[in-house]
Amino acid sequence: MAMVADAKAKETLFLKDCVYQLEMQVSILQKHLDKKGKKPRHQVRERLPILWYIEAFQIPRRRVSRYFGIARSTLYRWLHKIEDRESSGPAANETPAEIASLVWEITKANLSWGRIRTANRLRLLGIFLPASTVRNTPRRPIPRDTPTTPATSNSITHKGNLDFGQLQ
User: Fold this and answer.
1) Distance CA 103, CA 137 (A)
2) Are 70 and 31 in contact (CB under 8 A)?
3) If you write DSSP's letter for every residue of 41-101 in order, what string do you get?
4) Would you say the C-alpha torsion 146, 147, 151, 155 has a positive or negative sign?
């Protein structure tokens, strides 16, 4: 009896997955039909399910236009953009891990400080960081592969703890 229930649960899961795939394909095709006469512009959130669908179901690239109404050249352009992003390296505006760990440490030590006060204290240390970056840094994961504090700052004691008496 348990085997029958298990088989039914697997079949239900499989059918739900098939329905989801078909709904996704229908939504992609509806967008293509709605913009007939114009070139449909697929946003990133629409491109990724298409690329996932092609990869998951091993749809040959020559049949993409039949399945989704997308030209092969468009598909290759999307794939090249993804490859370029992966090989481009870290973002130019990414906060260095040492500074991020310093912001984390200051934020933990002074929970009542706001982003502007923390940014001003960092300026006193010679680190110019916008208040918005100070606000967004604790939302990111704590950097783990770097030392907890940079060794070049004058306000850091030999134990690695911040000496906030100098800042006030």
Assistant:
1) 7
2) no
3) ---HHHHHHHHHHHHHTT--GGGHHHHHS--HHHHHHHHHHHHHHHHT-S-TTPPPHHHHH
4) positive
Task: Look up residue 81 and give its two tokens.
Answer: 């953009």
Closest Cα partner for 25 from 69, 60, 62? 69
Q: How far is the C-alpha of 72 from the C-alpha of 50, rounded, in Å? A: 13
- Delimit the domains of the chain by residue range: 2-87, 92-168
Residue 160's pLDDT is what? 45
92-103 confidence digits (pLDDT tens) = 778 888 888 889
Q: Which H or E run contains 55?
A: helix 44-56
| Cα of 129 vs its chain's centroid, Å | 22
pLDDT digits (tens, 9 = 90+) for 49-97: 888 888 887 888 888 888 777 888 988 998 888 877 766 666 677 888 8
* pTM attached to this predicted model: 0.38
Distance CA 134, CA 154 (A): 20
3-state helix vs strand vs coil in the chain, percent to 5: 60, 0, 40
Reference 73, options 85, 60, 61, 83; nearest CA is 61
- Is 155:162 a contact under the CB 8 Å cutoff? yes
CA dihedral sign, ordered 95, 90, 140, 82? positive
